[in-house]
Specification:
- The complex is a heterodimer.
- By secondary structure, chain A is mostly beta strands.
- Chain A is 11% helix and 34% strand.
- Chain A is built from four helices and 18 strands.
- In chain A, strand 2 and strand 3 (25-27) form a beta hairpin.
- Chain B contains five helices and five strands, in the order ααααβββαββ.
- Chain B has helices at residues 5-34, 43-77, 82-100, 105-109, 146-152; strands at residues 118-120, 131-137, 140-145, 157-159, 162-164.
- The model of chain B has no long low-confidence stretch (mean pLDDT 94).
- Classes of the chains: A mainly beta, B alpha+beta.
- Chains A and B meet through strand 1, strand 2, strand 5, helix 1 and strand 6 of A and helix 2, strand 1, strand 2, strand 3 and helix 5 of B.
Amino acid sequence: MRLTFHLAGINNQNFIMRDEETGTYWQQITGLAISGPLKGTRLTLVPSDELNFATWKAEQPGGTVLNDIPKYAAEYSPENWDVRMSRAPVVISFREHGLKDRDLMLGIQAFGVSRAYLYAQVKKEKVVKDYMGGQAILLVVGPDEESVRAFRNRITGTNQASDFYRIVANAQGSLLMDAATGSEWNFQGCAILGTSKGQCLAQLPMLKDYWFDWRNYNPTTTIYGKK
Amino acid sequence: MIANSPQRTRWISGLLLLTCLGVSLVCVVYPVYVIRPFRAQGAHELAVALVVSRLRPAVTVVSALVGMLALAIYWRVQPRWLRRILPAIGAVMILALAFLARVNIYELMFHPIERASFSPASQVKLDKNEKVIAVGIGDQARAYPIRSMSYHHLINDVVGELAILPTY
């Protein structure tokens, strides 16, 4: 059954939606129905990225972009909206691990665990090699120095996680090199040169969220770099 | 001394009208009170507020019908015009609340995208550093600028043949 959704409220600063067809209320961040005939049902997460427009356009030149709605465009977020939002008050707070409520985190739920990465730290490190639930993963900062993707660190034909290194970007779009096969990989996690050419790492869904919100819905989350 | 029948009828119909007004007020005000920005929502109160929100379109209609009936009965046994005014105001408020119960105040604050349109990436004039939510389904790629998504919050879209709900 296809549902039509409407903005319907807010729950501790994460919004609630309601579908027209059944009147069920859904929590945005989890996609879970929290009240109504479909309570307990969960929407299927569609993989997505948060990217800079130029990075996305270079990868998808044939893609399409949502147009502004002219009569509301004046109310759209200004350029520095993220800076202004970072100062907005919160209604729930988790002062843990030395994190501030509106610290931007990159959250991953995979292999049975939740883990969050401080966005500023990931941008600084550019390539983060980590483990979740015993599985090796990789966070990679794109050539725009802002977009980030997460992958499972497993190259077909190798038995263990590879060491990936950032290299100077070239015209072919290489961003990383792996020590195991010496192949060059682009920001989409695909090998474009070397013995692994044609292979792509499995991308992991990742959410950029404020710490307080991530922590609210992931109470057992661990934090990269913190015990 | 036992109250005579018209007086008793006035009392009962007046009380009924007041009850309808109270019920309608709670139906409209309670969810708005609980579910508002920059206020923490407890799990239980939110659950109650959402149930009230789901039921209130029907409840306020019933309340309005009963309220109108109560008003009619009251007027029939109240010959003084001056004393008819307050119940009449109450009845009008009940009707107004039945209307307000159907108003989505969140979509008044953040208007929905009713008819989305899209342009090819090559024709779009966006700053290179503007953030987008990017989705790829089959051979179709679509981007939703966060600047507009953070206002509308969601869009009912179809990419290829898949109905999706980008949210921010």
